[in-house]
Amino acid sequence: MTPDSPRLTFSVLTLFPELLRPFTGEALLGKARERGLLAYHLIDLREFAGNKHNKVDAPPYGGGAGMVIRVDVAQRALASLPERPDEVILLSPAGPRFDQATAEALAGKRHIALLCGRYEGFDARTESLVTRELSIGDFVMMGGEAAAACVLEAVGRLVPGVIGDEESHRQDSFSSGLLDYPEYTRPATWQAQDVPAVLMGGNHAATGRWRRDQALARTLERRPDLLPHAELTPHDSAALLALGVSAGQLEAWGAPTPPEQKPPPEQKPPPEQKTKKRRSNVGPEK
Ligand SMILES: C[S@@+](CC[C@H](N)C(=O)[O-])C[C@H]1O[C@@H](n2cnc3c(N)ncnc32)[C@H](O)[C@@H]1O
């Protein structure tokens, strides 16, 4: 079943629309378009230059290296959209860091416009045209197109129906507040490395617990900064204690207290065996 109108439309405003073409035409994002779940408008900022040379940039006031994209170009391009987007995002290394929580919030929108810079970026007044800025990390790329592709990938896959198994992204890294557990597939042994036996035993409860413990161990080792924000259960607290986290640290993270460990039942001496001679009805072996 295809929806009457796309669940989410992305308008990408860029000087290089062809860079986005493969992302919006291939793989699951392409299929989502075919199925009417997502729609993409790739808009060439040059069409809104307003001069016969299609020049969108100018040197910075105050001097300095590079060129700056004019705010009036951005404004005309945004005004050309058939409907007002509910989010207009300026991709910029100076913006707040894009993360899974932001992707989840954006997946509930109807129309997102992504403004991709080049050169020295946009005139600072462009900020007054947008609802937010986003950076995809603490590094500087030559343009915003790769950043827009990251947003398309991360947000698009959260739109209901885009990926087959809704459950799979609930378990992904960050969605649960932890890194994902390690996955294995055939062959069962590769270069003397075996798949963990618990995954081969068919015991779903044991598999579930093992995966959760692995996610906790990986997060503790690689991204301990995530743990104070993760939703932890009393069993998780017990697992973290076993991994060497102190009780004080767990308390500081707001983790629940681990389930009470029942002391082992007192060992009573076995009752003295009365040695009663029993008559055996089993006759001697013949
Ligand atoms: C060379 S950069 C401009 C850098 C700018 N002068 C600065 O230092 O903040 C050109 C464009 O690439 C995009 N860009 C570069 N790095 C980015 C990042 N980490 N996240 C999002 N967009 C980025 C932005 O759209 C930016 O306008």
Features:
single chain; five-stranded parallel beta sheet; two-stranded antiparallel ribbon; 2 domains; 9 helices; 286 residues; disordered C terminus; Alpha/beta knot; Trp Operon Repressor, Chain A; 29% helix; binds S-adenosylmethionine; alpha/beta; elongated
Provide structural commentary:
The structure is a single chain. This protein is of the alpha/beta class and 286 residues long. The chain has two domains: 149 residues, Alpha/beta knot (3-Layer(aba) Sandwich), CATH 3.40.1280; 64 residues, Trp Operon Repressor, Chain A (Orthogonal Bundle), CATH 1.10.1270. It is 29% helix and 12% strand. The chain is built from nine helices and nine strands. The protein has a five-stranded parallel sheet, with helices on both faces. Strands 3-4 form a two-stranded antiparallel ribbon. β8 and β9 form a beta hairpin. S-adenosylmethionine (SAM) binds next to loops.
